[in-house]
Amino acid sequence: MENRIIRMSGNGRITIPVEIRWALRFKQGDVFTVERDGNHIVLQRAKEPVDLTSRVVAEHSLAVSRTPVEEREAFAKGVAEEGAASLAIEAADSMND
What we know:
By secondary structure, the chain is of the alpha+beta class. It has 3 helices and 2 strands; from the N terminus they run αββαα.
């Protein structure tokens, strides 16, 4: 694949080149997971709800054992935080349109 140089905006946004969007069939509204791998960013389309929450659950998991109630509470908190972040992104998008 040919390397492309793109620029990040002041609010941290980047644009995926159209050729890549077409080839991977990305469309507006698609949801992605993003993670850091050393000096690289890995961006993947989220396919299942578990993909959307796995990072949040991992961040809220502790090395100590939890009761089932504590696990459900941590999961609910993570999902709520992820939902709030998604709504904030959507609100920012609508303000920029």
